[in-house]
Amino acid sequence: MLLLSGGLDSTTLLALATSEDYAVHALSFRYGQRHATEIAAARKIAAAYGVVQHVVTDIDLRAFGGSALTSSIEVPKDRPVDQAHDIPVTYVPARNTIFLSFALAWAEVLGASDIFIGVNALDYSGYPDCRPEFIAAFEQMARLATRVGVESEGSDSQVRIRTPLIEMSKRQIIETGVRLGVDYGMTTSCYDPGPDGAGCGHCDACQLRLRGFAEAGLTDPAAYAIEASA
After folding, report:
1. Which of 9, 17, 34, 79 is the most interior residue, by most CB within 10 Å?
2. CATH number at residue 139
3. Nearest C-alpha neighbor of 132 from the set 122, 142, 141
4. How many domains does the chain divide into?
5. pLDDT, block means (10 residues), the chain with 230 residues
6. Which of 227, 223, 148, 153 is nearest to 188 (CA)?
7. How far is residue 78's CA from residue 203's CA, in Å, rounded to a whole number?
8. To which H or E segment does residue 160 belong?
9. Structural domain of residue 155, as residue ranges?
10. Residue 137 forms part of a structural domain
């Protein structure tokens, strides 16, 4: 069971899981995000990797707002991503908690004990739900809150939240994906893409992605609306 956003990290994660012979069920969300082009990317990527099943489900987080991704709040551009910031307005309140809860429910139905999520604690934009502490806490909650967790206590069937990218830099993630043959031209990372899905080149996600490719000595194959550089 793997959370697939259509972005760089989750696609690398899918390539890793596939290379380790996992039979992947992929889950994506239409959650009211402004960058809905990621759903088309996720569908294309899931098909390319031949996942067992790809479910796209709807959760309308626009009902709550509170984020530049689910409301009319402006997406920050050209922030110095190397500097410490407060939690940015692109943070969607409790998003990974919500996504993992849906994944946990489906995993329990499937009888799957491994849930993969492409969170990263190094090259990230200050999101609290990308930290190892959050993942450990959710995993413990999952073991307490599910039938399989109670009935399989102490066994290998316990729920595990898999985060193989969590300690990698963006460069390391890209280099891993390239080694596994990932076509990053299929992926999308931008918080504020154009109507055609092209990246803006200026939001935090674009800057981190472009810098990762530059540090790896590679050119990002994704489309950008303007000439972008790391």
Report:
1. 9
2. 3.40.50.620
3. 122
4. 1
5. 97 98 97 89 98 97 95 92 78 96 96 95 78 95 86 75 96 98 97 92 94 97 74
6. 223
7. 6
8. strand 160-162
9. 2-182
10. yes
